[in-house]
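In response to reviewer comment 3 from the previous cycle, which asked for concrete evidence that the modeling workflow produces usable outputs, we include below a single protein chain processed end to end. The sequence was submitted unchanged, and the resulting structure tokens are shown without manual editing.
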Amino acid sequence: MTPTINIINEDKFVRALSGCSDKGFRIIDGKDFEILQYDTKPLDNYTPPPCFPDYCDFHNGIKVDTHEYFDKFPECCAKHKKLLQVNWFNKGKYEYIKTKIFDTVCYTQDCINKSIKNRSWYKEITDYIDYTIRSYGQLPIGYGPSPGIQIYYNSIESIISQAKGIPNNKKQKLLEYLDQEGTPSKHPSKNTDLNILIDTYKKWLSIFPFELPFFKNLKPYFSKHLPFIENISEPNLYDHLVRAKTVSKERLVKHLLDATIELITSINCSTQYTEGKLENISKLEIELILSSRNLELQALKYKTLDDRKQYTDVLKEWFNGEKKFIKEIAPHLSNIIPNTDWNKDGNSNPAINSHSADMISKVTTLLARYPKIQELYISANLKLNEGKYFRNILDDYRLVLELSMKAVLSSEKSMENQRPAINIFFSQKGKSVQHMNIFWQVIDFYCKYNNSNVKHNDAVNPSEIRFIVDQSNNCLIELLTA
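The workflow returned the following structure tokens.
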């Protein structure tokens, strides 16, 4: 059964639901609502206590204790007494206590008797106790435990302790369970805002260099992993609910630090070399440099040092800093800038337009603010350098230009449909209408060329590659430097 929640602070509830926060979860404090009790069901073929209908002293004692408890409630303890000070409290709403405590004790006793000899006795009994405790509901935080729950708890403890048909080892396990789980008020837990935990984990996902080739295959696993949830139980046998706990932010950060150290010490260039998997050293070296820069850019997003220091410091030891970025990457640019040209037969020609090489170098640097797009751009130029995969080269260039447009223009439309966004963008940059028209004409013909020769057909003429590449780079430079 789904519990019913009674909101006692409507203003905070409305603010939680209608807040303008972009967080994924709305939070309402436990002191602003109560969870109402609900009825439980006994096991099939329920058998009343052996003393029924003339109840023994034990069962009669439960009835007496229950009525005496209700007569005193809510002046039975200091916390419950606070209920007299609030306008939402109505003692008549809790009259169910008079019958609920006795019924649930008898139902639980029947479950113990029927399940104790079964192979899954422990889960059958503890799940039923858990199901029953949950049915007592929950008062707002600060107003004491659920009414009557302590009598239920004490009664079940007595039944187990005094039962002659339960082996001592089973008694001990059940009593330990009751002590640890049976009374939530005995073991209050500190909850952490789930939004904070999710945000912390997302930051780690964006910081860790999953873009590197030897970590790429791990990204899907970690993207679906929930390290901020622990102690996930099997579904309860009776109400099918699953119990789980959120960890503290400190524990999550410690876990992420351990995971970072484990990953970078077990998977790295040294282990890849030992396993014979270290290939394309120049490309890998560039990727390491780009990832180092991306790490620093990501770390700058966080407002406090504590948010990043735990694991970014570990990763920074693995990468070089921003000051060395341009200096380190410059020698490698020669490896991604084409040193050949192709005639229409695809034969190598040593001539190279220095202007083309300069544009590639400039675009590579300009794309540093978009590491994922930069990675694709470098990959396209590595293929260009090898003088093969002509269709893939132009397709990659087209994708780089389209993704750059989406990033710069803040528009998710396809390249063919970006004219309104382009006009607004260049207009804001003070460009003339003629400039916008020329730029769009180039984009329009560029799209038509790709659709006819690349996207829907493998009809690339090798002698046209440099011209198309130059048009791509001209558009990228114009877009990224406007």
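The beta strands are 5-7, 33-35, 229-230, 245-246, 341-342, 348-349. We consider this sufficient to address the reviewer's concern, and the full set will be provided in the supplementary archive.
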